Amino acid sequence: MELIKKTNIDFIGMRKISFLASGIMAIIGILGIIAIARGTANMGIDFSGGTEMQIKFAQAATSQSIRDALAKAGIKEVELQEITGGNQVLVKMHKSTGKSADQVADALKAGIPGNTFSVESSTEIGPSIGEKLKQDTLVAVALSMLGIILYIAWRFDFKFGVGAVVATMHDVLAMIAVFYVMHREVNILFITAVLTIAGYSLTDTVVVFDRIRENMHKSLKDPMITIFNRSINETLSRTIITSVTTFLAAVSLFLFGGEVIHDFAFALVVGVVVATYSSIFVASPIVALWEKHAVETKAEAA
Amino acid sequence: MKGYTWRISLILIFIIASCVYLTPTLVDTLPKWWSGLLPKDKIHLGLDLQGGTHLVMEVETQKAVEGSLDLIATDLEDSLTSQNLRFKKIGRLGGDKVQLTLYDRGSADKVQALIKKKYPDLETLPVFDEGGFVNMQLRINEKEAQVRKDRAVAQALETIRNRIDQFGVSEPVIQREGLNNIVVQLPGIKDPKRAIELIGKTARLEFKLVDETVNAATAAAGSLPEDDELLFEKRTDPQTGAVSETPLVVKKKAIITGELLTDAQIRIDSQYNQPYVAIEFNSTGARLFDQVTAANVGKRFAIVLDSNIYSAPVIRERISGGSAQISGSFTEKEAADLAIVLRAGSLPAPVKILQNVTVGPSLGRDSIHKGLMAGLIGVLLVVSFMALYYKLSGMVANLGMVLNILFLMGALSALGATLTLPGIAAIVLLVGMSVDSNVLIFERIREELRLGKTPHAALDAGYDKAFLTIMDSHVTALITAAVLFQFGTGPVKGFAVSLSLGIIINLFTSLVATKVLFDAFLDRVHVKRLSV
To answer: What's A199's domain CATH number?
Structure first.
């Protein structure tokens, strides 16, 4: 079976559209980062500090009744999120409320009589941990970007290294953009998904780069854009197939992996899609234009 | 490439080794002949999968430094008194100094000499006059303070380990993290609240005399004599659960402290059926207790734990023999826990809980179940897709993927790694990614076949040309996985471990394992068309 026959699509030629689309994504992503830095985004308590509890009731309890019970005990500013299946609810409080998991449990016991519940999980995180995690995350992202740029610069050349990192940054920003717009929670698992996709996106990009390098050695006379286009077309089949298999795995995690990793799996699904897109439409066009510019300036100088 | 015997042997060895390493994980009770030579490590389940509590605690090390300065001040008071050197006041000043207020410069020199001899590590600041008195300050320098802080954390770690051991938790993890933090993991714990109270209690036990000359009910903090303090005795009514507080004025200076204990046991009072804690002093403690009780018959002696008065019984007679009891309004569980913390010793400084993650056992089971389900479905989807798309070759890739999972699980077992829910997610994700190398190779082979090469030539060319690409893509993926491993904690670390191992193993299965299958097949059977 063959889904993709020999193609001859002018990917680099589509750069006006793709750069515009990516640019918009990147801007939303940057807005998302600003919101994260200012703490106005939907932050997980591992970053903001606070208390989160997953509570399972014996009988259905409405959000309003839970809210009322908590308010009676002086616990306001609570985020409630119903979890599909089994009368479960997620209670989230940021550090400003300063209420502990025990207080919530006591309040519910007193405020909703006749309905027993069990605390499936509870997490309390002090603000200093969140601060440290933020710093560690920044260092981790910076380190991995640096490692990648160095490795690719060594294996290919500097332009490719920059192209790869720009494509990876694009994916990171796109994932943040999607989470920001959909108001999904940014927590440590999301960061893990982002870094994983960064690795995946690079794999995709490196495969295309490899073919470009091979073709550059093979046909020295062809114009740069032609070589790049041909390389992307030649690897297109592989890019799509690998994306499909990884996508299938990520989707099964998303659909069947359970509540705890639901958002994490969602980030992976989004990431696989944007990573595939970026290795075709972002990484190579950047290097192609740069190379072309370099060749032209050299020709002018000569 | 003809020599494929060694490659097949290598694969077989890996398969056998993985199975051997996986046995302890999969089999509940190992057979008897599974002797000492064979591995016993199993894949541990993370707290998110088996339920339990993960705590990060900060030792308030500054308090430990202040505590040791307080001790120095008390010790100096005693030495100066015993040498008949008169002083007005000795006490800690701020977080790093002890100040001595003396009456005249003459004694200052003698005191200075004494301090030099007793505390060579302390820095003495120049003497200065103030309000007709002579002030002398000792300062603990950065380095010395750091040594004390460091020791406090090490001591706290040891004490917490003792307490947990006595409390009885199977396979706890108690580690120091960074400069001041201690990480405690208690898998499968049933009553996390009680455990946290037990671990986090400073448990500084002090015996202080009650100052009966001051009326506690009217005494405000400002009007107290300088060497007194106001503490409260909390009593919980066992029937109503109402808490009442009785104020008591006690001497600031503790006569006896918890360090002088040798044992603490829970007992039940046969008369009132009330639990209490029986304590035993060491010889120094016994002597002190004997002296103090003899000198203070008729007065009250407050038993203070972490600045809360447990009880303040009247000393009816001189107590020698070195045993005493702590009674108060506590339940049997509370008394048992109090005995544990007294036996294990006090923490050198209070600890603050920075992070407390508790997962119930049912949620953990649910997570395992769902993770495995998602994995199974993912594998089925990928396997069907590959078989459909690449036919026989796709099945070879699928076989490679199954080997991948087997080797990865074997490696996780061998390393005694911890599997977390994100770790399971990494394995599922790897299922999708692991066929990538084979996809790369197959696409190459198809290209070579299109150029008119024979199946075997196309196969070799496909593997050769894809080799560098596969290396490059794996190394870059490994860089990010390594960074994740380096900075991640708990679940994230589990994810990084699975991911990095998976990437390395994948390199082997795709470049060696699947290739040898093709080679063996093509050498034996003369094929005209490659099923790819």
So the answer is: 1.20.1640.10
